[in-house]
Amino acid sequence: MNKPDKKVYLLLLSSVLLGACSAPTPWVKPYERARLADPIMSFSRDPVSSAYTNHVHQAREGARGAENGQGGGCGCN
Amino acid sequence: MQLLKLTMAKIKGCRAAAFLLLGGLTLCQSLLAAVLPEDRADALYHSYDGGGVQVTGPSILVRKSIGKSVSVSGNYYVDAITSASIDVVTTASPYEEQRTETAVGVDYLHADTTMGISISQSIEKDYKAKTAAFNLSQELFGNMMTVSMGYAQGNDIVGKTGDLLFEEKVKRQQYRLGLSQILTKNMLLGLGFETVSDEGFLNNPYRTVRYADSGSGKGYSYEPEKYPGTRTSNAAAIRLLYHLPIRASIHGEYRLFEDSWGIVANHIQIGYTHAYKNSFIFDIKYRAYAQTKADFYSDLFPYSQSQNFYGRDKEISTFNSQTVGIGISYEFAHNWHMLERASLNFKYDYIFFDYQDFRDLRDSTAPAGSEPMYNFSANVLQLYFSLWY
């Protein structure tokens, strides 16, 4: 029996990935996101304050990057 | 479905899968639209006081949308510094200086994609920095997930007070990747990854290292520090945010960091936020940070120029710090005239820094290399007023 070639594997992989991403039907419906839209559920509620706090840390620590307040959002506005 | 069959029939070879994936990802986009950042203005006064250093100043951040697709922002930030830090009192004279940073940005929203560019400029009398950044974020899977990525490039010019001929350059590049995911109707997950690459004059032209010198009365002498000309760092962070059954939330955060200088650092933060009667929000947090030293760091080198690179900045030494913070926000003026709302906010952080291999040289009675380890605490205040319109 011939082994399936690379193309078949890639098409199968594509189907699986597409299946996985066509699924969403989001499991948290828009009308269930009231709590997520609450300001207390923001990773960076006040950007002006987050930026300053990051600056305080960066100036005194060796570590840098991947700070809170960069990008993100939960799509629940 | 018909379109998919037709497409399947036409595609050939290995390109098919890639093509299909790309098309699939496009189809996966949510039917719900993404939104621009909120229109708001913030005026903040900040104050840092610790280790002989005081830094105060304002930060003004304004954001306004133009139509439904464009949002512009501007930031004006000042650090007014008075420094008599441990480095300064042991090797130099206290000084005062000011750093002013200005930044403008534009975000453009199209369907579920937001693209943004920004430029910023930071000016001190002996240091100038310019940065340009590009950011892209995409909402996916019914707006359950936001993927963001960004690139920034900075070009700095390093000067030295009292030496008009001194001018060095630094080039910085940042690559960011982020993901925000709704896990349940009460829980959010955030992931972040960032690589930063620097090239150029990376040490401080004023700072020195000390080395053992039996010819000196103190047992040691100083010479200018010398850092490597390149540095690359990677940081990865995970954050969780959970809404409790009452109007309150808890959050947790962990970040791991490593760089080409041998520094490995991590921190953990936990916090609790409590809303009260639609007017007050209270915050409390705890943060613990720890790092190892850079390969070329030493508190006391055995002799002058004992290795290729040498540094004695406490920022690259082995240390840990702990922070306890509280915050209170008062919201008012809901739907008052043209305002959506306003808030008055106060935050206070207490930070304790404890150094493991950076000694306090103010103790001149101890033999060189036997001085007590240095530590200090800092008080950080933020008072700001915010308007949403």
Give an overview in words.
The complex is a heterodimer of chains A (77) and B (389). Helices cover 40% and strands 0% of the residues of chain A. With 77 residues, chain A is mainly α. Chain A has 2 helices and no strands. Chain A is flat and about 55 Å long. Residues 71-77 of chain A have low confidence and may be disordered. Chain B has helices spanning 2-10, 15-27, 86-91; strands at residues 40-50, 53-66, 70-83, 95-110, 113-124, 127-140, 145-158, 168-184, 187-200, 208-212, 220-224, 230-243, 248-259, 264-276, 280-291, 319-332, 341-359, 373-388. Chain B is mostly beta strands and 389 residues long. Chain B folds into 2 domains: 1-30, no CATH class; 36-388, Porin (Beta Barrel), CATH 2.40.160. Mean pLDDT of chain B is 91; it is low at 1-31. In chain B, strands 1-2-3-4-5-6-7-8-9-12-13-14-15-16-17-18 form a 16-stranded antiparallel barrel. In chain B, strands 10-11 form a two-stranded antiparallel ribbon. Classes of the chains: A mainly alpha (77), B mainly beta (389).
As a percent range, the share of helical residues of chain B equals: under 10%
Helix content of chain A: 40-55%
CATH topology of the largest domain in chain B: Porin
Mean pLDDT of chain B: 91
Which structural class should the secondary elements of chain A be placed in?
A: mainly alpha
Mean pLDDT over all positions of chain A? 78
> Largest sheet of chain B, order of strands side by side?
1-2-3-4-5-6-7-8-9-12-13-14-15-16-17-18
- Count the DSSP helices of chain B: 3
Strand content of chain B: over 45%
Low-confidence stretches of chain A: 71-77
Major sheet of chain B: 16 strands, antiparallel, barrel
Secondary-structure element order of chain B, N to C: HHEEEHEEEEEEEEEEEEEEE
Quickly name the level 1 CATH class of the largest domain in chain B: Mainly Beta
Count of individual domains of chain B: 2
